Structures are given as structure tokens and as C-alpha cells.
Amino acid sequence: MFVPLGSIILPAGQKWPCCAVLPHKFAFSRGERSGSVMLFPLPRLLAAFSTRPMPLMSDQTSSPRLAQPAQRRPSVAVRIGKITVGGGAPVVVQSMTNTDTEDPASTAKQIAELARAGSELVRITVNTPAAAAAVPRIRERLEMMGVDVPIIGDFHYNGHQLLEAEPACAEALAKYRINPGNVGFGKKKDSQFASIIEMALRYDKPVRIGANWGSLDQSMVAMLMDENHKRAEPWEASHVAREALIRSALDSALRAEEIGLPRDRIILSCKVSGVQELIAVYRDIAGRCDYALHLGLTEAGMGSKGITASSAALAVLLQEGLGDTIRISLTPEPGASRTGEVIVAQELLQTMGLRAFTPLVTACPGCGRTTSEFFQVLARTVQSHVREQMPLWRVKYDGVENLTLAVMGCVVNGPGESKHANIGISLPGNGEAPSAPVFIDGEKAMTLRGDNIAHEFIGILDQYVATKFVSRAG
Ligand code: SF4
Q1: What is the dihedral sign for C-alpha 283, 177, 346, 84?
Q2: Which of 156, 212, 239, 361 lies 20 to 30 A from 132 at CA?
Q3: What is the pLDDT of residues 18-31, one digit of tens each?
Q4: Which of 362, 408, 420, 439 to mutate to test the pocket of ligand 1 (most atoms within 8 A of CB)?
Q5: pLDDT digits (tens, 9 = 90+) for 115-172
Q6: Pocket test for ligand 1, best of 362, 370, 419 (most atoms within 8 A of CB)
Q7: Is 425 within 8 Å of 418 (Cβ atoms)?
Q8: What is the CA(344)–ligand 1 centre distance, in A?
Q9: For ligand 1, mutation pick of 369, 371, 432, 439 (most atoms within 8 Å of CB)
């Protein structure tokens, strides 16, 4: 018995629309051509479908449960100025400047921009005596601007000398970051590492021991390669490299503890530039220690590539409860603001339900049902308005960051999505009546018409915030 492929009704009630989507087992050689459709032996076809179990609608055990991040990995809390990293504290957003630290004016300006965008810690490179000398002046400028964000000093090669030579720098920084792969080489490595840890003890500062794929500790790599040669079944080179990265961080942390730095002043990171490698490395190190962990995909790249790769890697780890602080290392477009990486980090945490920073606008992508750009412009206008208002709203209104907004392009999903938001607007698609229903807390509240819809919608939003959120002033 044969049935024509084009008329098969699947158990879920859907038509399988074309033979191109058939599994490989339905090779054309098994069928016979009859007119314009392929014919298949029915018993064989049904047997194949029977391998795809279809749950019944009434089967309550299959009802979808809300996905949520796993319980956070227990880690030792580390205090960095006014910020706590780890120990169950909310995942902290940090960023890094790209100005010349020797220029206190431009560096302080960029730190202030990053802090105002929401960076809770800001790292600066400290690479020369002039840069180290500039650090206290940067701190003074920030204080004059009313910016109290903790500054982290990033040291490579000569950190021990710079901290020793510039006590005011050592004091002004809230944390030191060192890379065990380039803290020193040969016999000097241990003594230079110890010098920096002793400076951290003298000035009461925490330290991030940040290993990096691009500057692996070569003595560690050589030692692990030797061990690997003796294995009955040697690991692949990439496996050895991952182990070297992790061991470099862990052994350095142990050494720091031996020198006297307490566990609550140590944060670890092991950054690589590949998504799957990063996930593998952090899963591994998370199970081998309880130090607070800083997550970041190093050299993530520019634009959408950098955002996608960082989000893919960090989302997996955050969902598994790993990570106490994050940085999205984006390469900015020439001349573009550095704050983009802060916004991406915040949006990643917010869209995953880990933290709330700023109301986010839900907007449909648009399609042929709404060829006007008006809804896109309105979505952008509303998001910009919210971002501009947040510094004030955050101070004035308790919980305003949890506000939800929707701007939709037509009646297909517009009213439905708008009802899920605190405030939503459904704009008219092609051929629809030129009116825009506005929904407030799930109910249709009014309909906007004419040329002033954007202005009126912003007014409704401002009014909602002022009346629905409790003023912090009481
Ligand atoms: S809501 Fe309307 S305009 Fe927007 S994507 Fe859906 S069908 Fe297209």
C-alpha cells in the first residue's frame, strides 16, 4: 500500500509540507514516483513515525516549566571598595578603559562614562611609571565629578616595580589584577609575584589572578607537556593547554595564600577566545575551588560577532550558576563609545533574569505586514528615553528597573504582546485602521491617533512611572 507524501497528516495535526524535510531514512530509492509526488510503502513510513513519540495534550507531566538559572555556585565573597563580588552577591558588571592612563583627564572622563552607563568596577591599564603616577590624579578627578566607582589596576611585567615606586597609586586602586603568565620570567617570576601580593597585603587590597590563553605561563605548559608524555593515553594538546591555564590560576592563588593573602581577597579568571573552550575551562575550575570567578571571553571581537560570542559563552555559564562578575570584551568601532560593552553585559544579565538594570523594550522585528518604519523609530525612541531617564528614575522610584514595555508593528501579535507588558502599544500595520491601542497592565487603556503618537506614548510612560512606582523619598 502506498500513500502520497504530500498528503501525510502528522500526529500533531501538522502537514509535513515537502519531501525535502524527510529524515534521511526516507531515501528516494525506497519510494516510487507516481505523477508529481513520491510514494512510500505505508508500513515502513508509519514505523518511522513511531520512533518520534508525540506527547498527548492532556499529559500534564510534559507541561513546560519555566527555565531558570541553576543555584549560584558557592564562592568566597570579596570586597572591592563598595562592591561585593561572590558569596551570593548579584553578578557584578565591569569594564575596562581604552584611554592612555598617562592622560588623567581623558581616562577619568571615560571611567565616569562607563560608571554612569552602569559599570560597577572599571579597570585601567597601569603600564608605565607615568601611568602609575597618574592613578591618584585620576581618582581625584573622579571624586570631583562625584564618581566613586572602584578602579582596578591592570599590571603586566613591571607591576611589582610600579606599585613599589608609587605608593599613592597602590593606595588609590581598589584592586590589583595580575596575569600569572607575564608577572615575571625565569627565577624572577616567584619573587615578583610575591612582591605584588605583599603590596596587596600592605595596602589591604584584593587581587584578581587572571590567566589568559594568549599569555600562558610557559613553564607550566612545559611541565604539563612532560607529564602528558608519560601518560599511557596522552591528552590532546588543547586539553593540556586548558589544564595549564587552570593550574596557572589555581597554583598562583595557592601561592598567594601561602604568602598571606586571605581567600576573601582573591578572584580568579581563565580567559580564552573560543566559546566552547571557555565553557569547558570555567566548568572545570569552578569544581576545583571556591574562589570568586570573573567571567569573560577574551578578544571577543567587534560588533555582532563579539556580542554573539560573549553572550553565547557567558549565558551557558551563568545558567549553570557560574560566575560572580562579568566583562564583555568588545572591540569598539573607531571613535565609538566604550559604554557598549557595559550595556551588553547588563542586557545579558537582565534578559536571563539574573538582575534588572533598565526597563527593556520588547519590539517585534517587523515584516511585510508593516512596511512603515514608524514602529521601529518609536521602539528606538522609547528605549532611548528610558535610558536617559534611568539615572533620575533609579534614584527617585523604587523598582522602576522592572518596568516592561512593548512596541509592536501590527495587530497580529501587537495586542497580545502589549498585554504582557506594563505598557504596550500596537501600531497599525498595512491596511489596518490608523489607530494605535495602548494597553496598561494588561487592559486596553486608550487609543492614540494622528501625528503625535510618539510624544503622547512617552507622556503615558512618564505618568505611569510617576504614579505606579513608590517614590524613594517616601
Ligand atoms: S507583530 Fe505584525 S508587523 Fe510585527 S512581526 Fe508580527 S506580523 Fe509582522
Answers
A1: positive
A2: 212
A3: 333 333 333 333 33
A4: 408
A5: 999 999 999 999 999 999 999 999 999 999 999 999 999 999 999 999 999 999 999 9
A6: 370
A7: yes
A8: 25
A9: 369
pLDDT at position 59 is: 53
Kindly report the protein residue whose alpha carbon is nearest to atom 5 of ligand 1. Answer: 366
CA distance linking residue 91 with residue 82, whole number of Å: 14
For residue 418, which of 428, 405, 431 has the smallest C-alpha distance? Answer: 405
The cell for 427 is 501600531
Please report where in the chains the cell 527593556 appears, as a residue: 360
Q: Tell me the pLDDT of the chain averaged across its residues.
A: 88
Measure 409 CA to ligand 1 centroid, in angstroms: 5
Cell numbers describing residue 260:
598571606
Query: What is the residue with the minimal CA distance to atom 2 of ligand 1?
Result: 410
Is pLDDT of 47 > 80?
no
Residue 16, all three cell numbers: 509535513
Please count the other Cβ atoms lying within 10 Å of the Cβ belonging to residue 228: 16
Looking at ligand 1, which residue's alpha carbon is closest to its atom 7? Answer: 412
The predicted structure's pLDDT at residue 60: 56
* Residue 277, pLDDT above cutoff 70: yes
Residue 470 CA to residue 389 CA, distance in Å, equals 16
Cell of 241: 593547554
Q: How many CA atoms lie within 13 A of 354 on its CB side?
A: 29
**Cα diameter, the chain:** 90
Please state, in angstroms and rounded to a whole number, the distance separating the CA atoms of residues 149 and 139.
9
pTM for this structure? Answer: 0.85
Per-residue pLDDT tens over the stretch 325-380: 999 999 988 888 999 999 999 999 999 999 999 998 999 999 999 887 888 999 99
Stated as kind and residue range, the H or E segment containing 447 is strand 443-448
Length of the chain: 474
CA of 310 to the centre of ligand 1 (A): 29
The CA distance from 391 to 196, in Å, is 37
